[in-house]
C-alpha cells in the first residue's frame, strides 16, 4: 500500500481542468479524438475508464494502453471599468493514463487503470487584480481503479471496481484586496497538501443487442478529498495582533470530486468501417457548495461555490480509413457547473465547445500509436465572483470582468494488444 | 505510397493544430487603441504640483508605500492606458517615513495602528525600521511629481525653498531640498522646466490648514500682502494666494499644457477636527463622576457671578447623566476678568482666590457643538496642565488646590491651540471661499478642468462614499478614507481622490480614462512594531 502510494505521489503530475469545474476529460487518446465519447465504444483497454462493463468485450486476451497529453491553456481577463487586464501563465498540464486488461475467460475480464480525471493548474500573475481570490492553484488527483467485468447475459455485461483517489493541492492567494505588511507587500496565504487518499467506486453496464449497436451506462461515485495534514503558510502579514501571525499552521478542507453519470450509445455503419458515438454526462457538482478552509491559527476562509449539476453532450466518429489507419473526429458541448456570481478565477470555466480529431496508426498487429487533438473554446463571458469580503470590510466586494479562455490539448499514446 | 499517404494525414493534423493555436483575443480588447483616450488632452508628460496631498504623504510622514499610491501616481497609471508616459516620483527610501539630515532625524516616522497594552488599537509611531531617507541625498533629472509636503501657495514660487541651508531656520522645506534643482530654484520653476503636457495643481490647503490644526493660534493675515512676514500658522491673504496661483498656472500652461486645478476642502471634512467631541466628559467615567458634585458647587458661585454680569451663557455645569462639554478659553469673548474678580470678592471670596478665578475664567465658557476640538486635544483633556500647576504653586497655592484648578478642559479652560472656535472657523472658511473662487476663475480663464474636491470630500464626511466592498467615510481610523494623522488620506482615500480628478478631466477634455477600484487600495496600516 505504501509503495503504491509512493508511486502515485510520484505520478502526481500537474493536470488541468477542462470539463467544467476541475474535471479533466482526457482519459484516452482514442476517445478524446472522438469528443471523449466512450461509454458505449469498445476500442481498447481505455474502456476501463469509460465503462468497466466493456472490458469483457475486448477481443484480445491482454490489452494495454497508455498515453498522455500536453495541456496548453490560457485565460485572459479584463475589466473595462478599471482598465485592468491579466493573462494566465499556467504551466503545461500533463494528464496521463494507463490501462491494462486481462481476459480470464469469455465471460470474465479484469483490469487495472491509473488516470488523472481531476485537476486544475492556473497561474495568474502574482498580485494581479484578482489575487485575493487566487494567485496560483495546482490541484491534482490520481485515480487507481482495479476493475472486474462480467458478461451477465448474451447482450448484457456489467463491470465495476473500487477507486483509490490520491489528491494533492497547492493554492496560493492574497489575504485581501489590499491587506499588506508594513512594507506594502501583499499578505498572502498558501496551502499545500500532497497526498490525501480517499476511496470511491465505479460501476457500469453495457447492452449489446447486436454486433453494431451498443448502449452503455456508467456511474462514478463522489469522492471527498479531505485534507487534514497539509500545511498553510501565512506570509507578509503585518506584525499586528489584529491580523494572523506569519508562519506555518495546519488546516482542514474538503474538496469534493463529484459523482458522474454517463449514458451513451454507438453504432457501426458501412461494413463496420464507420462508428458513430453519442455520450451524455451528468456531473453532480451540486455537492460543491463551499470551499471552507479552517486554519489551526484560528482563521477561516469560507468560499461559497454553489456549483450546480452540469451536463455534457458528446459526439464522436471513427473511420477505418485503411487497414492500419483510423481517423477520428468529435465535438462536445460542456456545460459549466459554475453559476452566475460565483465565477472565481481559480476555475474560470464557462460553457465550452470542444472540437477534437485524431488518428491511430497500426504499426503492426499488436502495436498502434494514437494521437489526438482537442481545441477547447470558451465563449467570452462577463462574470463575477460576489462572495469575497475583505478582512474587516463591511460588505462583500465583487470581482468581475470579462474572461476568455481556450485550451489546446494534443495527446499521444500507444495501444498494445495480444 | 502508403507511407506518403499517412504523412499527408499527419501533415493535415499538424496544420489544423496550428490553425487553432492562435492567441486568446477578446471581442473588444481594452488594450486596443481607441478604447481609452486622452481626448483634447495629452497625457504623455503628466506633471503634478502641490503640497503633501500631491506627494502621497500619509500617517504623518512621507513613506514609500503611500508615495507609490499618491493620487498623481494612481492617475498616471490610468493615464498610461490613454497615451500617458512614465511617471517619476522623488521616492523616499523606506516605509519608516521620517527624514534625516546628515544622519540626524529631523522628522518623525509614520503612524501605524497598534494594539496597546490595554488591548485596544490606537495610533503609534512606527519603529519597525529605522528611517534612511536623508535629505542630503538629492535627486537630479526630470521628475513628474512636484508635491512638497507642508508647502503653502506662496512657497511654490519662493526661491531658496529647497536650499538645505535654510532647513534649520525654517526658511526651506526638507522635502523640497530632496529634489530642488538648485539652491535658489523654485518648485514651480522646476515643475515648469519638466515641460508638462498635462498638469494638476492642488495648492492652498496649508494656507488655512496650519491655522486650523494649530487651533487658530496663528494670525489671519488677510490684508497683509507680504507673505515673508507670515508666521507658519497664519492664514494667507487671498490676494497673495491669487497672485501666486495665477503665476503658477501661467508657468505651467506656458507651452500649451492642459491641466486641472483642484480646490480646497472644508476643514470639517477631515477627522482631525471631527474626532474629539465638544462634550467628551462622561459621567460614566467613575473618576470624573466622583468630582461632579464638588465641581458644580465650585462653579455655582462663578455662575452666579456670570449671571450678575449679564453673561449667563458662560455658565459652567457638569451633568451627572450626560456627557458634558469641556471648558474652553474663547479669545473672542470680552475679557471680564476684572469685573468677575470684583463680583466674586463682593460675593465673599477671598481676594486672591477671586483674582485667580477672575483671571482663569475671564474668557471661559463651555464648548458647544459649534466648536471644533482638534485631534490632538484628546491627549490633554482632563489631564493636569503642569504649566498651570507650577504657576499656581508659585503663587502660593497648596498642591491639592493647585492641582484641582489645573485640569485641562474642566477647571482650567482649554487653551486656544486645542479649539477652533466659530470665529476662527469663519476666518478659515472666508479665506477658503476666496481661494476656491480664485481657483475656479483661473480654471475657467485658462480653459482648465476644475476639480471640486470640497464637494467630493464633504460627501465622504457626510454619509460616506460607497464602493465595491463598503463605504468610505471620514471617521477616524475605521472610516478608511483618512490616515492616522487625521488630515491626509489613506491610499484608498487617494484612490478616491484620483477618481474624482479623473472624472473632472474626462468631462473637461472629452477623454476616457478609466477610474480605479478603490477597494484595491488599502486603508490604514496595522502594526505593533512600535516599541
Automatic annotation (TrEMBL), chain A:
<keyword id="KW-0732">Signal</keyword>
<dbReference type="GO" id="GO:0009279">
    <property type="term" value="C:cell outer membrane"/>
</dbReference>
<keyword id="KW-0472">Membrane</keyword>
<keyword id="KW-0998">Cell outer membrane</keyword>
<dbReference type="Pfam" id="PF03349">
    <property type="entry name" value="Toluene_X"/>
</dbReference>
<keyword id="KW-0812">Transmembrane</keyword>
<dbReference type="GO" id="GO:0015483">
    <property type="term" value="F:long-chain fatty acid transporting porin activity"/>
</dbReference>
<comment type="similarity">
    <text>Belongs to the OmpP1/FadL family.</text>
</comment>
<keyword id="KW-1134">Transmembrane beta strand</keyword>
<feature type="signal peptide">
    <location>
        <begin position="1"/>
        <end position="19"/>
    </location>
</feature>
<protein>
    <submittedName>
        <fullName>Long-chain fatty acid transport protein</fullName>
    </submittedName>
</protein>
<dbReference type="InterPro" id="IPR005017">
    <property type="entry name" value="OMPP1/FadL/TodX"/>
</dbReference>
UniProtKB/TrEMBL annotation, chain B:
<feature type="signal peptide">
    <location>
        <begin position="1"/>
        <end position="18"/>
    </location>
</feature>
<dbReference type="InterPro" id="IPR036514">
    <property type="entry name" value="SGNH_hydro_sf"/>
</dbReference>
<dbReference type="GO" id="GO:0016788">
    <property type="term" value="F:hydrolase activity, acting on ester bonds"/>
</dbReference>
<protein>
    <submittedName>
        <fullName>GDSL-like lipase/acylhydrolase family protein</fullName>
    </submittedName>
</protein>
<keyword id="KW-0732">Signal</keyword>
Amino acid at each position: 500500500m505504501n509503495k503504491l502510494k509512493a508511486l502515485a505521489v510520484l505520478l502526481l503530475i500537474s493536470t488541468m481542468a477542462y470539463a467544467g469545474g476541475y474535471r479533466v476529460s482526457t482519459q484516452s487518446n482514442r476517445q478524446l479524438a472522438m469528443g471523449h465519447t466512450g461509454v458505449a465504444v469498445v476500442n481498447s483497454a481505455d474502456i476501463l475508464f469509460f465503462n468497466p462493463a466493456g472490458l469483457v468485450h475486448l477481443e484480445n486476451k491482454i490489452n494495454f494502453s497508455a498515453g498522455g497529453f500536453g495541456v496548453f491553456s490560457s485565460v485572459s481577463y479584463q475589466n473595462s471599468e478599471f482598465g485592468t487586464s491579466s493573462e494566465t501563465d499556467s504551466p503545461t498540464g500533463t494528464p496521463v493514463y494507463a490501462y491494462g486488461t486481462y481476459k480470464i475467460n469469455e465471460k470474465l475480464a479484469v483490469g487495472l487503470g491509473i488516470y488523472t480525471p481531476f485537476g486544475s493548474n492556473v497561474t495568474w500573475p502574482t498580485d494581479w487584480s484578482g489575487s485575493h481570490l487566487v494567485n496560483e492553484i495546482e490541484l491534482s488527483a490520481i485515480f487507481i481503479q482495479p476493475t472486474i467485468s462480467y458478461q451477465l447475459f448474451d447482450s448484457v455485461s456489467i463491470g465495476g471496481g473500487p477507486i483509490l483517489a490520491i489528491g494533492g493541492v497547492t493554492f496560493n492567494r492574497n489575504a485581501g484586496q489590499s491587506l499588506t505588511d508594513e512594507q506594502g507587500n501583499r499578505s498572502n496565504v498558501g496551502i499545500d497538501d500532497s497526498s490525501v487518499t480517499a476511496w470511491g467506486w465505479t460501476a457500469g453496464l453495457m447492452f449489446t443487442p447486436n454486433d453494431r449497436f451498443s448502449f452503455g451506462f456508467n456511474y462514478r461515485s463522489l469522492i471527498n478529498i479531505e485534507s487534514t495534514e497539509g500545511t498553510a503558510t501565512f506570509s507578509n502579514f503585518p506584525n499586528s495582533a489584529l491580523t494572523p501571525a506569519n508562519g506555518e499552521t495546519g488546516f482542514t478542507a474538503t474538496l469534493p470530486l463529484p459523482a458522474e453519470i454517463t449514458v451513451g450509445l454507438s453504432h457501426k455503419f458501412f461494413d463496420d468501417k464507420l462508428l458513430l458515438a453519442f455520450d451524455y454526462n451528468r456531473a453532480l457538482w451540486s455537492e460543491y457548495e463551499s470551499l471552507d478552509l479552517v486554519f489551526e491559527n484560528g482563521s477561516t476562509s469560507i468560499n461559497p461555490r454553489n456549483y450546480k449539476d452540469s451536463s455534457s453532450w458528446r459526439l464522436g466518429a471513427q473511420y477505418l480509413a485503411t487497414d492500419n489507419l483510423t481517423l477520428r473526429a468529435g465535438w462536445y458541448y460542456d456545460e459549466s457547473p459554475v453559476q452566475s456570481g460565483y465565477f472565481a478565477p481559480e476555475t474560470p470555466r464557462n460553457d465550452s465547445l470542444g472540437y477534437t480529431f485524431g488518428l491511430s496508426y497500426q504499426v503492426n498487429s499488436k502495436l498502434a500509436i494514437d494521437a489526438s487533438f482537442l481545441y477547447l473554446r470558451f465563449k467570452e463571458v462577463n462574470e463575477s465572483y460576489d462572495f469575497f469580503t475583505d478582512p474587516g470590510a463591511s460588505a462583500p466586494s465583487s470581482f468581475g470582468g470579462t474572461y476568455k479562455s481556450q485550451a489546446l490539448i494534443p495527446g499521444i499514446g500507444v495501444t498494445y494488444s495480444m | 505510397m502508403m507511407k506518403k499517404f499517412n504523412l499527408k494525414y499527419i501533415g493535415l493534423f499538424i496544420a489544423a493544430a496550428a490553425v487553432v493555436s492562435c492567441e486568446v483575443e477578446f471581442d473588444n480588447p481594452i488594450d486596443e487603441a481607441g478604447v481609452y483616450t486622452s481626448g483634447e488632452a495629452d497625457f504623455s508628460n503628466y506633471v503634478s504640483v502641490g503640497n503633501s496631498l500631491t506627494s502621497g504623504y500619509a500617517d504623518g510622514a512621507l513613506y514609500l508605500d503611500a508615495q507609490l499610491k499618491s493620487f498623481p501616481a494612481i492617475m498616471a497609471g490610468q493615464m498610461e492606458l490613454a497615451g500617458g508616459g512614465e511617471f517619476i516620483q522623488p521616492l523616499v527610501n523606506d516605509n519608516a517615513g521620517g527624514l534625516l539630515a546628515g544622519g540626524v532625524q529631523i522628522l518623525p516616522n509614520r503612524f501605524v495602528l497598534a494594539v496597546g497594552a490595554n488591548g485596544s488599537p490606537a495610533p503609534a509611531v512606527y519603529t519597525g525600521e529605522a528611517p534612511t531617507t536623508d535629505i542630503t541625498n538629492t535627486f537630479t533629472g526630470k521628475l513628474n511629481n512636484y508635491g512638497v509636503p507642508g508647502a503653502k501657495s506662496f512657497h511654490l514660487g519662493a526661491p531658496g525653498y529647497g536650499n538645505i541651508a535654510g532647513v534649520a531656520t525654517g526658511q526651506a522645506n526638507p522635502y523640497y531640498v530632496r529634489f530642488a534643482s538648485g539652491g535658489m530654484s523654485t518648485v514651480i520653476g522646476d515643475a515648469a522646466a519638466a515641460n508638462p503636457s498635462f498638469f494638476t495643481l492642488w495648492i492652498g490647503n496649508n494656507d488655512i490648514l496650519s491655522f486650523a490644526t494649530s487651533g487658530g493660534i496663528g494670525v489671519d493675515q488677510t490684508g497683509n500682502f507680504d507673505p515673508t512676514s507670515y508666521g507658519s500658522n497664519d492664514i494667507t491673504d487671498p490676494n497673495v494666494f491669487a497672485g501666486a496661483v495665477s503665476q503658477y498656472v501661467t508657468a505651467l500652461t506656458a507651452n500649451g499644457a492642459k491641466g486641472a486645478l483642484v480646490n480646497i476642502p472644508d476643514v470639517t471634512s477631515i477627522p482631525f477636527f471631527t474626532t474629539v467631541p465638544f462634550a467628551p466628559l462622561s459621567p460614566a467615567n467613575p473618576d470624573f463622576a466622583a468630582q461632579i458634585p464638588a465641581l458644580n458647587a465650585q462653579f455655582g458661585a462663578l455662575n452666579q457671578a456670570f449671571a450678575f454680569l449679564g453673561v449667563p451663557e458662560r455658565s459652567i455645569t457638569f451633568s451627572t447623566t450626560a456627557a458634558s462639554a469641556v471648558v474652553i478659553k474663547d479669545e473672542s469673548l470680552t475679557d471680564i476678568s476684572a469685573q468677575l474678580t470684583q463680583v466674586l470678592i463682593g460675593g465673599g471670596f477671598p481676594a486672591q482666590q477671586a483674582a485667580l478665578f477672575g483671571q482663569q475664567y475671564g474668557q471661559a465658557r463651555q464648548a458647544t457643538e459649534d466648536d471644533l476640538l482638534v485631534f490632538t486635544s484628546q491627549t490633554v483633556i482632563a489631564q493636569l496642565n503642569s504649566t498651570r500647576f507650577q504657576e499656581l504653586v508659585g503663587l502660593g497655592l497648596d498642591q491639592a488646590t493647585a492641582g484641582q484648578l489645573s485640569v485641562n478642559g474642566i477647571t482650567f479652560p482649554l487653551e486656544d491651540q486645542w479649539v477652533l472656535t466659530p470665529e476662527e472657523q469663519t476666518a478659515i472658511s472666508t479665506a477658503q471661499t476666496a481661494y476656491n473662487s480664485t481657483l475656479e476663475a483661473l480654471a475657467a480663464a485658462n480653459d482648465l478642468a476644475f476639480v471640486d474636491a470640497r464637494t467630493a470630500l464633504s460627501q465622504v464626511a457626510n454619509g460616506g462614499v460607497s464602493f465595491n466592498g463598503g463605504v468610505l467615510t471620514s471617521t477616524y481610523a475605521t472610516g478608511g478614507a483618512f490616515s492616522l494623522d487625521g488630515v491626509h488620506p489613506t491610499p484608498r482615500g487617494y484612490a478616491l481622490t484620483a477618481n474624482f480628478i479623473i472624472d473632472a478631466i474626462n468631462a473637461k477634455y472629452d477623454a476616457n480614462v478609466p477610474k480605479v477600484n478603490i477597494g484595491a487600495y488599502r486603508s490604514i496600516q496595522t502594526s505593533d512594531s512600535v516599541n
